[in-house]
Amino acid sequence: MAQTAQTRILIVDDDSLIRLDLRGLLEQMGYAVVGEAGDATGAISSARNLRPDLVFMDIRMAGDLDGIDAAATLTAENLAPVLLLTAFSDLELVQRAADAGVVGYLLKPFSEEELRPAIELTLARFREYRALAAEAADLRDQLETRKLVERAKGMLMQQLKLTEAEAFSRIQRASMNTRKPMRAIAEAILLTNQVAT
């Protein structure tokens, strides 16, 4: 129960009775329901304000946007994983949900026995997605740093007639002496050269 109490959930459905029933079931299971919304626009606004760990979202709701549209926004803004709750299972909706970045999909009616695994799997998949996204961003940053250092190194080699090892050593030494990352040193070298030319 301790694990579930930390999980903060937002419920989005245009039927207030379904929201009430789901809230009761989730709270009985030990989850914290931090908010409710009755349409997709309210879902987006509530998720931005409440920062839930998980959003339960119905697909078909009144308004210009449906649950999948809202899920796409929540995914794009990296706010929370979405577990779609729907009575519809046609392939077009499933494909739209996948394209929108929906992490979980559960058909109504569902039981408590189905709900807990769906919640936990959705949360686990979202954690994996975030870890992979962070790793990819770190790799992109490392690659960009390497490119900048290579360009700065080449510039030092050309201007000061240094060997590759000497140019790299200068950048490395400047990084240690100024306590700035090598990327910042490389950017400064490149910027200095642009101003000078």
Account of the protein in words:
The protein has helices spanning 2-5, 16-28, 40-50, 67-76, 91-99, 112-160, 164-178, 182-196, and strands spanning 8-12, 32-37, 54-58, 82-86, 104-107. It has 197 residues and is of the alpha/beta class. It has two domains: 2-110, Rossmann fold (3-Layer(aba) Sandwich), CATH 3.40.50; 137-196, Arc Repressor Mutant, subunit A (Orthogonal Bundle), CATH 1.10.10.10. The protein has a five-stranded parallel β-sheet, sandwiched between helices. Helix 5 links the parallel strand 4 and strand 5. It is elongated and about 75 Å long. The termini are far apart.
What is the number of independent domains? 2
The CATH topology name of the largest domain reads Rossmann fold
* Strand adjacency order, main sheet: 2-1-3-4-5
Uncertain runs are none
| Coarse morphology | elongated
How many strands?
5
Name the CATH superfamily assignment of the largest domain: Response regulator
Q: Percentage of helical residues?
A: 55-70%
In terms of DSSP E residues, the strand content is 5-15%
Can you give keywords for this protein?
197 residues, alpha/beta, Rossmann fold, Arc Repressor Mutant, subunit A, 2 domains, five-stranded parallel β-sheet, 8 helices, 5 strands, 13% strand, elongated
